[in-house]
Every structure is written in C-alpha cells, then in structure tokens.
C-alpha cells in the first residue's frame, strides 16, 4: 500500500483504501465501494491469500457497481476486467525443481527463495465493453492475453 500511495501521489491520483484481509470482511468492503466515490479498484492478493473462494462475489459486485478493477491474477479475468501480476502457472512450474532437490536429499530450509520473474497482463474486452470502457491501443499491444 505504501508503494501505491507514493505512485498515486506522483500521478495526482487520490486513493481511498478499503481493506479486507479475511474472506468475511469482503462483503462490507465491497458494500463501501461506490461509483459516486470511486473510479476504479485495485484488488491486491498473494498466491496464499487471493480470495479465490470469494472471487465470483468480488467480480460480480464490482461489475454490478460498474467499477473497473485490476486483479492480481489471471483467473480473476474470465469475468473481470483486467489483471496484472505474477504468472501463477510460471511459479507452479518451478515446483518440480524443488521437489527433485528435496527427494535427492536437500533440506527445504537450505533451498533459496525465488522471486517471480514472469508477469502477465490480461484484458477482458467483453467486460470493458459492458463497463463502457475504451482500452487504448497502446495498452492492448502490451497485453499478454486479450479475452474477446
């Protein structure tokens, strides 16, 4: 959030943080969002805590409120608007390397922590159209995947 606040300040964009760190907090956080007060939503997540089980409720609520949202992972964008984040598929594809090392005797605590290196931008044009948004060509050209 600190980085978002810093960049928003540089861009002259006002932010209004709405927190939901547990699934049971999601409904009240979504209720507090309004097209009158908010232009867009940035949904944070992590591979371990990405609200996958309430994903549909988040997407449906934001689409109903006509609020475009940028989600952390591609699996939010089948019905959502846009995602930019770590490719979970790329992360998972590294698992066999670690499993092999452990099966050959390496101690898990001795294995290095790897940072993600593959990020993906996915745009759902159907949702963009339903929200009344026009996506600039420059952004479409940068997208790794476009859902039409």
Alpha-carbon distance between the two ends: 32 Å
Which architecture name does CATH use? 3-Layer(aba) Sandwich
Strand order of the largest sheet: 1-2-3-4-5
As a percent range, the share of helical residues equals: 25-40%
Question: How would you portray this structure in words?
Answer:
α3 links the parallel β1 and β2. This protein has a single domain, classed as Response regulator (Rossmann fold, 3-Layer(aba) Sandwich). It is built from seven helices and five strands; from the N terminus they run ααβαββααβααβ. The mean pLDDT is 89. A five-stranded mixed beta sheet has the order 1-2-3-4-5. The radius of gyration is 18 Å and the shape is globular. The chain is of the alpha/beta class and 148 residues long. The longest helix is centred in the N-terminal third of the chain and has 10 residues.
List the helices and strands and how they pair.
Blueprint (H helix, E strand, L loop, with lengths): L1 H10 L14 H6 L9 E2 L12 H10 L4 E3 L10 E5 L1 H5 L2 H9 L15 E6 H6 L6 H6 L2 E3 L1
Parallel strand pairs: 1-2, 2-3, 4-5
Antiparallel strand pairs: 3-4
Describe this protein with a few key phrases.
about 35% helix; Rossmann fold; about 150 residues; 5-stranded mixed beta sheet; alpha/beta
Summarize the structure.
This protein is an alpha/beta fold.
């Amino acid at each position: 959030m600190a980085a978002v606040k810093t960049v928003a300040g540089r861009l002259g964009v006002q932010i209004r943080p709405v927190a939901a760190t547990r699934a049971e907090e999601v409904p009240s956080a979504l209720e507090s969002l309004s097209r009158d007060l908010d232009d867009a939503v940035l949904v944070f997540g992590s591979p371990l805590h990405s609200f996958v089980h309430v994903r549909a409720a988040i997407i449906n609520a934001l689409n109903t409120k006509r609020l475009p949202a940028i989600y952390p992972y591609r699996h939010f964008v089948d019905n959502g608007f846009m995602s930019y984040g770590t490719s979970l598929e790329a992360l998972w594809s590294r698992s066999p390397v670690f499993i092999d090392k452990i099966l050959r005797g390496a101690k898990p605590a001795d294995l290095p922590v790897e940072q993600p290196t593959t990020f993906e931008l996915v745009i759902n044009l159907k949702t963009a159209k339903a929200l009344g948004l026009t996506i600039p060509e420059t952004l479409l050209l940068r997208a790794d995947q476009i859902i039409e």
